[in-house]
Amino acid sequence: MLRLLLLSVFLLSIISCNPSSEEKITTDKIGKTPHDIMFMQRAYPTGELNTAAYAEAIQWKKQLAQRGGTAVLWEFAGPTNVGGRITDIEIPIDQAETYYVGAASGGIFKTTDAGATWNPIFDEQSMLSIGDMEISKNDTAIIWVGTGEVNAGGGSLAYDGNGMFKSDDGGISWAAKGLENVGSIGKVLIDPNDENTLIVGAMGPLFRNDVNRGVYKTTDGGTSWEQKLFVSDSTGIIDMAMHPSNGDIVYAASWERIRRPNNRQYGGVTSGLYRSTDGGETWAELNNGLPPTTAAKGRISIDISQSNPNVLYTRYLDANGSISGVYRTADGGDSWIQMNSSQLNNVGFHWWFRGIYVDPTDEDVIYNVDFVVQKSIDGGANWSTAFPGVHVDQHALAFNTQAQNEVLLGNDGGLYKSTNNGSASVKIDNLPITQFYRIHIDAQNDQKRYGGSQDNSTIRTTTGGMADWNTIYGGDGFQPLVDHANTNVIYALSQNGNLGKSVNNGNGFSGATNGIPSGDRNNWDTAIAMDPANSQILYYGTQRLFQTTNAAGVWNAISPDLSDGPHTGNLSYGTITSIDVSTLDSNMIYVGTDDGNVWVTLDGGNNWNNISSTLPNRWVTKVFASRDELNTVYVTYSGYRYGEDTGHVYKSSDNGSNWIDISTGLPDIPVNDILEDSFGNLFIGTDIGVLGTTDEGNNWQVIGENLPSVVVNDMHIHEASEYLYIGTYGRSIYKLDISEDVLSVANSDLAETISMYPNPASELVNLAIGDLTGDLQVSFYDQLGRKISSELFSEDKNNLQFSLQSMQSGVYFVHISNGNSRTVKKLIVKK
Hints:
The protein is mainly beta and 831 residues long. Helices cover 5% and strands 37% of the residues.
């Protein structure tokens, strides 16, 4: 019965809420790996990511913002109740209601009221992918963070981490502390007797072999590091444990892992468990009672009992991802005994899950944080279900030593809290860390907002709310569309082009691919589009373009193969990635492919012209027909230049006969989307946020003072309400009022006329106003763009004072406007 139940849970997760598990295949040669699409986009055609270019782009953005931005703030648009993948949870030993949550691509969030409210605390940093965090037990204001998610799947991971960071004030400010080249960081350990001594386990870069991996140690608080254990250039350290009172005793689990878009190896002879008794200076592999040294060993997890440090548990996988055993030692690792693992939920692809945790108060209570959570109260002899009913794919667990029986769980669906040691739990549903691929806003009703999300389906709100988003279509979600003449007709996509249609406002969906051959090639993120003049006409891209004239009743091909595929390589599907129908002429259709082709038809598909002979051979992310000029089209690209004189945004004024690069002022960074507002401004969504230009790319501006350097995958302008919406990969959705020209230059005189002090502040902050006439509007926003307060001053505005009593510690933004002038000042609140 238990096996049937677990199988049912597994199948349900694949069908409805966790489709990426379906793709976690563990064979060595698997051809295309769909959920590596973000890597594939950026790596085509070289097979490499230019991480140096990414770092340079971040610095360019910071310098540009310092010279004066647009003085506008993004407003958070939800969801909060969906969540996203959590990689680590930490709770200070002296603060029962303070939690730190690290997200796969959304940074770090902190609560001081047990999850009732949260603030992002890592947004000033350039990398929001979190590997592991560690809080000092001697001074809980000290937090160390290792960046870069270590999970092998990566969930469409785009970038590794950029090293270690330290905060001395509970996350208000951060300092970079080296190890920027070690890829992803699996574990951070602080010596219990020396705050300046840390040992870090690094998995290294995910998509290439590299010697910058293994165990690293610092004895001077991160000023310098030494590599203390190196196993091989494909073997990193996935997990570690340290004796709670003796920092010389350290355990490290190595994992041989190779991941490429067409090749995965999740185990090997160099996977193993090591111990050091001299603070990491020397290491010995442990094997007495553990699996032998063979190529069959996969990911290993390790944890030590805080109540009895002689007791440790480890979980071994084989190279195929199945659990090969749970082992226990009672003598500090000298000898091990295999415990019962036959009752564990062995679904395969366990390299995606965290592993064993030991209850800090009882050496016999252990949790296997896995596809689901299972618990043993007798040291692994017997297992039962814990945290029933939570989202699958578990990655983090934390025990609250200040709150009896409280355990927190992090998985692909967010954060859960149990107050009875895992017997039951509730979801903490207010974390804005959803990873979006695509978004859409109903043209008739801007309160109906849709998004296709990684591992959390196609979701929507019908109220414009933050916390009432619900799943309407299963699978990894991609491009949703709503009939612009009928709000009840909805199209939704899951991976590999699985298109569904609803005619009853999302209450039910039926298949909508009649006429599209199963033998055609589908991109993981299949492109679809609707004719802006006729909602009965839609387009669907395989390697060919398909059209329906009866709202997906039947599809017909209207083009030949527009790609250069099929490909024998592994970085391109040979498929259409973008479709755009001109709003000025429905017969004018542009198409872009993942292997660099751009095509146009001027007669509705009867004839096609390849217009990309002078364009870069890069993955096309967007083709966009101008809404104002009939023959003008823009194209954006992912990837990097690698020394070539190529750009990421191109414009043609003659339907593609000639092109100009309008991105010469941009850094070498992937561009994922482009849109045009009613003022003629261009906005681009990039891997470092949103940028805009008023002059066709001669000059670019950073859009919004409060958007972190998060990947922006998709953008949408809702024309009726005049709002620009963006879908981010890890920080949910934001919106921006563009009813006014937001790219008009902010008044630098206003910024200089007003000074703010003290900053940082605790209880009060003052604005000293110079010689200004007219009304002054002062609004306070938190980092998510949520307005905290707003006040209009008509008189006596020379010196204004504001109370900060209601604000928690963190970063805030003060938006000040005076007529058509505006400025934004950043305020740090420390309490």
